[in-house]
Amino acid sequence: MPLQTADFIDALIVARDVRQSGDDIRRYSRDVERGRLVRVRRGVYLPTEVWTALGPRDRSIARMWAYALVVDRAPVFCHGSAAILHGLPLLKSKDARMSVAVDGIASGKPGNDVRQRPLQLDASELCTAVGLIATTPTRTILDLASTLPFGDAVVPADAALRQRLTTVEQLGQAAEESVISRGIRKARRVAAFADPRSDSPGESLSRAVIHEAGFPAPLLQYDFSDSRGFVGRVDFWWPEHNLIGEFDGRIKYQSGRFAGTPDDNLWKEKLREDRLRALGPQVARWIWSDAMSPALLAYELSRHGLPTVQRARVRSTQR
């Protein structure tokens, strides 16, 4: 049974607290050597069986909690760290450090795993997430959009709208009124482009790549029916070009639109696509590697006859 967030937070052991109780903290180092404990950061531990049971997001949250427990001033988590606390998806980044907002007063010494970001924040841009102080989802999206490549920023922006953590109106207003000095034009572009109808990170990235490559904007989540009834909802639809676009994430076949085993789902997806093609449209399909290499996605769409509406330089989202 998966651990609940509160369970592993309560299981954190802070050596400083143990020292104050008069107990011998050297036993924790010995327990780390024996494999009984995992050192989350200096002076903070978790039982190995608890750490092993955590997924990537919860391990990141455990590290943030460990940091918050040993610094003198409650940190404000921002950018990617705030996104993790809010449950927003992020594309893989080389910078795995925690992001902590500072206003000129450091929240403890930065380390190899902590990046301090000078931000001007007011109380309305702060909230509590998983028991920690973080920038609000709206402010988090703007901060990410001002610093990340366009496609990378669209992924969490779409998710925040889809999960109703913010609204199109709130995001747009915050972007217009923002005091962010660097990257505000990028942030406003993402805020204007974000759409709650993108149903997954892969669809969000694909939509950004399609836009940057100069292709016409598709309709999203379009329903098709035939004489037998409802056929399915497609990810992208270009009615002027009679073209359906489908992003194929593995999760779609494991636990997505169909219930059943992956093999069953593949067969059901084939039957669904046969019915779609019988209605007349072509169907272009792509996977993560195509979306992450925009030239491949552009080729897939072009070979199905989708024209560009403007000249654009296709850029890779990989770093």
TrEMBL record:
Q: What is this protein called?
A: Type IV toxin-antitoxin system AbiEi family antitoxin domain-containing protein
Q: Which organism is it from?
A: Naasia lichenicola
Q: Which superkingdom, per the lineage? A: Bacteria
